[in-house]
Design brief:
This protein is mainly alpha-helical. It has one domain: MFS general substrate transporter like domains (Growth Hormone, Chain: A), CATH 1.20.1250. It has 21 helices and no strands. α1 packs parallel to α6, α3 packs across α4 and α10 packs parallel to α14. The two termini are 22 Å apart.
Length: 550
């Protein structure tokens, strides 16, 4: 295909790293509940959900610093190598059947992920010279590897290994995946050459070990926050409130009414983003418990299903993305030609409404479709994931584009940090919601065990439906006002139509028309690339591109 050899090696590095990450994620909550909190009865699911929520929140909260370390201290190759080693160690520590050691393992994974994830994507851009027409398809191929790893991992770690030998060994399989990722990195060094290496004055291994020591210290902090989820929640809230105050003050100090309004619009959309992901991220926690306990097996016996077969549902999101991302990539420009392309606030609203409808499907199935054993047909959960994915395709891809357009160019980096912080907040809240749905009646670590009945799931999911629907409708109604606050910031397709001479900016220059040379607007191509990264996995890449780091 004419691409650098290193692309295929980076493809394998990322595919196996994503295999490791999503492989362990598929079994995490259920394993924690059944191994460490089984004595709590139904309350086990609630406590496990809190651990899961804290872990995923910290993955997003700590991943932002890795790019800085690579840029200023280690270089990309060594940052990725160190991150891979730390993550592999963490995955194998998870095999120790002790809660404290398990939290140590999660802390190591969080710390290593911060060094690995933002930098592997950056390496792709460095393989191509500016203007190289192969760059676009190179990113597309890379993202296909991301989704491939995410799709295969739950089938292997949960549905096969977990169901056959126990969920614990799913972590072992994930660890092997991480080792393979590290080995591919070593193989790739020859092909990569000087790409991603540090400056000559930074080549000493002393920096490598110093950053490694810093990563271990960070892991210690993460361990503490995982152990004290309430403190983590207060910390996230405090930082978020600080960022909100900063942008309001920055807007006022700028003495630029337009910029102040844009910051207000950005913060309003941050809130929608947090609401969406708090609902969407039930996937790895409460929806996993629901699939295991109250859904008819997609295959095999109920025993096999509960042992690990349920994990197959975790493969549906990346599968749906691979199927529907190209369709959405073609949908927006068609709507644009008809002057029907929804504005940014309306796309956020559509995302929220769809994730809400996904939960309503489950409520409907619980009320009307239970069999004699009290189980609902698996197709309803599959359709729920479909609606959640199409909602994601409406909201997630435009988020970063929105941030870079609304923030002052001097504060884009901080605004991007706010975007990721809103996702981290959402992950934490998602854990609290999952705790209520799957067997808890309180909040924090003082959750009281309750009977985890299908009725309880139905009640919580009905509340999520009304929340998602209500917030979505509110954003539909408020869309004109939010658009007014945005002062002309809209989809790029519309901007370009109104002003063909508009500066596309660096981001759009390097990412035109990636899929099969389709002649589609450049924003759609950006959307598609971000979509193919699934969820927000490509967002760190996008921030690097926007800043000109690649």
């Amino acid at each position: 295909m004419g691409h650098p050899k290193a692309l295929w090696q980076l493809f394998n590095i990322e595919m196996w790293e994503r295999f490791a990450y999503y492989g362990m994620r598929a079994v995490l909550a259920v394993y924690v509940a059944t191994t460490f909190f089984a004595h709590l009865g139904a309350g086990a699911n609630a406590e496990a959900s809190l651990v899961y929520g804290g872990y995923t929140a910290l993955v997003y909260a700590t991943g932002i610093a890795g790019g800085y370390v690579a840029d200023k201290i280690l270089g990309y190759q060594r940052s990725i190598l160190l991150g891979a080693i730390i993550m592999a160690a963490g995955l194998f520590v998870l095999l120790i059947e002790d809660l404290n050691w398990f939290l140590v393992g999660l802390a190591l994974i969080v710390s290593g992920n911060g060094l690995f994830k933002p930098n592997i994507s950056t390496m792709i851009g460095k393989l191509y010279a500016p203007g190289d027409i192969r760059r676009d398809s190179g990113f597309t191929i890379f993202y296909m590897g991301i989704n491939l790893g995410a799709m295969i991992a739950p089938i292997v770690t949960a549905s096969w290994i977990g169901a056959t030998w126990g969920l614990k060994w799913g972590f072992f399989a994930a660890g092997i995946g991480m080792i393979l990722s590290t080995l591919f990195l070593e193989v790739a060094k020859k092909s990569l050459g000087h790409v991603g290496l540090p400056d000559k004055d930074k080549e000493g291994w002393g920096r490598f070990f110093a950053v490694g020591a810093g990563a271990i210290v960070l892991a210690g902090v993460v361990y503490f926050l995982l152990s004290e989820s309430t403190i983590l929640g207060y910390l996230l809230i405090t930082i978020m409130l600080g960022l909100i105050l900063y942008f309001v003050v920055a807007g006022i100090r700028s003495k630029n009414k337009v910029q102040l309004h844009r910051y207000i619009a950005m913060l309003i959309l941050f809130a929608a983003n947090a609401c969406f992901w708090a609902l969407f991220e039930q996937a790895g926690s409460s929806l996993n418990f629901f699939a295991r306990e109250f859904v008819t097996p997609m295959y095999g016996s109920m025993e096999t299903w509960q042992a690990g077969g349920f994990g197959i549902f975790q493969s549906l999101n990346p599968l749906y993305i691979l199927i529907f991302a190209p369709l959405f990539a073609m949908l927006w420009p068609k709507l644009d030609k008809m002057n029907m392309n929804p504005s940014i606030p309306r796309k956020f609203a559509l995302g929220l409404i769809q994730v809400a409808l996904g939960f309503y499907l489950l409520v409907f199935a619980i009320s009307n479709m239970q069999n004699a054993a009290g189980l609902v047909p698996w197709i309803f959960l599959a359709l729920c994931y479909l609606l959640h994915t199409t909602g994601e395709l409406c909201l997630s891809p435009i988020g970063l584009s929105m941030v870079t357009k609304l923030a002052d160019e001097k504060e884009v980096g901080l605004a991007m940090g706010g975007w990721f912080l809103s996702i981290a907040m959402a992950q934490y809240v998602a854990g609290l919601i999952a705790a209520l749905a799957s067997g808890g009646t309180g909040g924090g670590h003082g959750i009281e065990p309750a009977a985890a009945t299908i009725t309880q799931y139905s009640g919580v999911y009905m509340q999520l439906f009304w929340i998602g629907l209500g917030v979505g409708i509110a954003y539909l109604v408020l869309a004109p006002a939010i658009n007014k606050l945005m002062h002309g910031v809209k989809s790029y397709a519309k901007q370009h139509k109104e002003n063909p001479g508009i500066d596309r900016g660096f981001f759009f220059q390097v990412l035109p028309n990636p899929i099969c040379k389709m002649q589609i607007p450049v924003e759609t191509c950006y959307n598609l690339l971000t979509i193919l990264a699934f969820e927000c996995k490509g967002h760190l890449l996008c921030s690097k591109i926007q800043s000109g780091s690649i």
